[in-house]
Amino acid sequence: MPTKKSAGKKRTGLPKSATITIGHGKPVPSDEVEVTPKAGRIHFKNKDKADHRLRLWRKGTNPNAGIDILLPAGRNITVVIKKNDEFNYDVMTIKNLIINATYGPIKN
Question: What CATH number does the domain containing 92 carry?
Answer without folding.
Answer: 2.60.40.420
